[in-house]
Amino acid sequence: MDILKAMEQRHSVRAYTDRPIEGETLERLKKLIDKANAASGLHIQLVLNEPQAFSSKMAHYGKFSGCKNYIALIGKRGGDFEEKCGYYGESIVLGAQMLGLNTCWVALTYKKVPDAFTVAKDEKLLMVIAIGYGETQGNPHSSKFYDEVAKPSDAPEWFKAGVEAALLAPTALNQQKFTFTYKNGKVLAKTKFGTCVKTDLGIVKYHFELGAGKDSDIWL
After folding, report:
1. Pairing assessment for the beta strands 45-47 and 123-132 based on DSSP bridges
2. What CATH topology corresponds to 3-132?
3. Which of 56, 102, 130, 159 has its CA 20 to 30 A from that of 21?
4. Domains 3-132 and 146-215 share a fold
5. Neighbour-count burial of 194, counting CB atoms closer than 10 A to its CB (0-12 exposed, 13-18 middle, 19+ buried)
6. Confidence band, pLDDT 50/70/90 cuts, at residue 1
7. d(Cα 5, Cα 162) in Å, to the nearest integer?
8. Residues with Cβ within 8 Å of residue 71, at least 6 apart in sequence
9. pLDDT band for position 205 (50/70/90)?
C-alpha cells in the first residue's frame, strides 16, 4: 500500500481488539515517530498497554472501547505548535495505516494519565491519537465539495489534486473549516474559527502536499 492509497482507506476507528502492537510493526511505528520528532522538534511519544486514558465517562461518551495504546502529541508551547502537531501527527497516522494499524485523533474524550508520558515545563500535551488493531476499518466521513473549500476553479491540476486529498483528511467534528487559494504558483491555506482548527490546518496541509506532489515550499 502506498501513502495515497492509505489516505483513501484510512478512517477513524474507536473500537479496538486485544491484539498487541509488537515485532517489526512496533519497530517501524517507533521509527515513524522518531522521524517526525527529528523533523519537527516536537516530543511525540508512544504509549502502550495503558487503558486508563480511555476508561473515563468521556471516553465512553466518545464510543471508545478496547483502546489501550495511543500517541501523545507533545511539544513546546507557542508559535505553530498546534499546526505542527497536526502535520507531523498525520504523517504518523498515514504511516500507521500502511503498517496495518488503525487510528483516531482524540482531542477531548480521553483522560490525561501523567505517568504515561513525559511533559517538560515548557511543553504541553495537545491531544492524543488512539492506535491499534481496529474491530473494523471504520467508515468514510461525509465531505464538502471542491468548490466549497477552494478558489479559483481554473487552478492547475496539481492544485486540484491537492484539494481533493485535503478533503480526505480527518478534522475535528468533521468540520472541514479550511480553504485553499491558488496564487501565482503558490497556495494560501486558511481556516475559520472553530474547535482544533490550527491542528486541522496542519493535517490538511500534509494531505494537500501528498496529493499535489509538492513540498512545504508551496505555501504562502
Report:
1. unpaired
2. NADH Oxidase (3.40.109)
3. 56
4. yes
5. middle
6. confident
7. 14
8. 33, 44, 45, 46, 47, 89, 92, 128, 129, 131
9. very high
Region of residue 213 (phi > 0: left; psi between -120 and 50: alpha; otherwise: beta): left
Determine the CATH number of domain 146-215. 3.40.109.30
Q: Which residue ranges make up each domain of the chain?
A: 3-132, 146-215
List b or e across 95-134, with b for residues whose CB sees 16 or more CB atoms inside 10 angstroms. Answer: bbbbbebbbbbbeebbeebeebbeeeeeebbbbbbbbbbb
Write the DSSP string, 42-79: ---EEE-S--GGG-SHHHHHTT-BS---EEEEEEESST
Side by side, the strands of the sheet bearing 102-106 are 45-47, 70-76, 123-132, 102-106
Cell of 193: 474559527
- Lowest-confidence region among 40-44, 153-157, 193-197: 153-157
